[in-house]
Design brief:
57% of the residues lie in helices and 12% in strands. The strands form 2 sheets. Strands 4-3-7-6-5 form a 5-stranded antiparallel beta sheet. Strands 1-2 form a two-stranded antiparallel sheet. Helix 7 runs antiparallel to helix 8. The longest helix is centred in the middle third of the chain and has 33 residues. It is globular, with a radius of gyration of 24 Å.
Amino acid sequence: MNNQKKQALKEIIRSLHDGATLEQARERFVKEFSDVSSKEIAEAEQQLINEGLPIEEVQRLCDVHSSIFKDSIKNDMPKPDIFIEQSLLILNQENRQITDLCKNILKSDNISPDDITKLYEIVDLHYKKKEIVLFPYLEKHGVTSPPKVMWGVDDEIRDALKEIISKIKENDFKTIRDNLNACITRIKDMVFKEQSILLPMMIDALSSDEWHQIFPQLKNFNQETDKKMDYNQTAQSDNPSVDFDSDFITLPSGKLKLNELISLLNVLPFDMTFVDHEDKVAYFTEGERIFPRERAVIGRSVFNCHPPKSQHVVRAIMDSFRAGTSNHEDFWIKMGSKYVLIRYYAVRDIQGKYLGTLEVSQDITPIQSITGEKRLLSDN
């Protein structure tokens, strides 16, 4: 995009944030542009954020931006690539499922809490795939602001659906119907943004090798049967040059073969993630998971692994660990039937130098129900 076109696009977007009406912005856009690509929109928004426009402000009018450009977005078709095609097939099938469910809910005279819950679950899982698998690859290409804006909108949609589910119990169906209609409009707008902006932008930016990595992560995402695999076998297929059966890793308190260490870490009843001293995700266990992780996260800034509204909390924790003013933080949240304890630990070497942060998450619901005693010699 030439500088003149980029500047004009930025001015149109900024005018909305300065109070211009949708009609005024659209009139200027039609006058100055015949079409615009998803990459050009993303570049303009990212540059505005780099110049000081708050991400929250871009997020607030994200739906307005897309409505202006909706009929004028033109993207080059990708070269045929099986991994791109299969990845897009997964994502587009999910969006069709979301769209069909939205249509059925709108057509129904009755508001079914089961339908709204199902919509939330499908939407939540689909958005997690974007945030955990797709966004890290864009970030590696320096595209950071558009994913943050989209994640913020994702969270607003999630919160709106959860609010509707909670309000159903109060039987205020007129308010619920109005809120539901507005929420479904945002969900359908997000489908458009993914298909017309996000995915074309990724096709333009990513290599074939990166799509090769993305496809299996999308395919297996959040599938417990796929997660409970032979991790030693998986590791061997990923790195055949390592002798897993004979090479020992010597530690101060003993030694382990590499396949023993991998299996040992993955059998722990915790969800563990290690973030190095540069705040980059360096490792996570692939056994029992509370929060979904895919290998795309390796090397990703830990701050980009959290929604925009909670990034400042994570940053404060890391800063306190690095400064030595704190060594440990705990949080606990309800996740459906799970009661999850999330613990952050500062990891330091024997000289006290900060090496990174370990996040340990565990469903403590079964532990809370423990009473009495059960010893090794007990009958049951």
